[in-house]
Structures are given as structure tokens and as C-alpha cells.
Amino acid sequence: MALVPLKQNVTVTKPGADDGWGGTTPGAVITYKARVSEETNVVTNQYGEEATTSLRIILDKLPDVSYDDVITYTNELGVTVARKPVSIEVKRGLNGKALSTEVFV
């Protein structure tokens, strides 16, 4: 059970593989329950640079999300945001297990 209520859904699209003919095959699509906050944050990206994000997504435990994936979220008004993650942070408990994952998009 998650620490915060996970009422929204996000879709994670994995990158496709090279098909050998100059194209790519479609990647896997995974849907996760999440808590999404639409807020502006300044975070440090994977290269150590500051970046501005518009979504903060909290996922339960340690889902399969990487910097190459495209995360898609549609809010209650029908506005869809589809971007790659800028920062992925795993929050751990005292025992070392992953409690939640925070993804900034």
C-alpha cells in the first residue's frame, strides 16, 4: 500500500528497438497508478544542471521508469502532457527498501 493516495494514472512508453531497416519497433506501454501535482519546480537533472519542470509524479515503490521513457499524463480538463523525465528520485525507508519514486517531468 502506498504512503499517499494514488488517484491518477500515467502511461510510460518504453523506447523501441532498431528493426535493422532504418526504423524502430514500437516500445512497451505500461500504465501506473500515480499522484500527480502540476507545479513548477527547479530540479537538478541527471547531468547536474538545473532544469525547470511542470509535473511532479509520485509512484509506488520502484517502478520501471528510466530517462529514455516518455511519460504521458492527462488531467481532468483533458490536457495531455507527454515528456521524458528530467529527474528521477527514489525515496527509501530506514530499512533501505524503496517506499516511493518521485519523477519530475
Explain how this protein is built:
With 105 residues, this protein is mainly β. It has a single domain (8-104), classed as Thrombin, subunit H, CATH 2.40.10. It has strands at 8-13, 29-44, 50-60, 70-74, 80-83, 87-92, 98-104. Strands 5-4-1-2-3-7-6 form a 7-stranded antiparallel beta sheet, with no helix packed on it. The radius of gyration is 15 Å and the shape is globular.
Which range best describes the helical content: under 10%, 10-25%, 25-40%, 40-55%, 55-70% or over 70%? under 10%
Rg calculated over all Cα atoms: 15 Å
Shape: globular
Unreliable stretches, pLDDT < 50, 5 or more residues? Answer: none
Our count of domains comes out at 1
In DSSP terms (H or I, runs of 4 or more residues), the helix count works out at 0
What is the terminal-to-terminal distance? Answer: 24 Å
CATH architecture: Beta Barrel
Walk across the major sheet and give the strand order: 5-4-1-2-3-7-6
Strand content: over 45%
Any descriptors?
single chain; 105 residues; mainly beta; Thrombin, subunit H; globular
Structure in a nutshell:
By secondary structure, the chain is mostly beta strands. The protein has no helices and 7 strands.
List the helices and strands and how they pair.
Blueprint lengths: L7 E6 L15 E16 L5 E11 L9 E5 L5 E4 L3 E6 L5 E7 L1
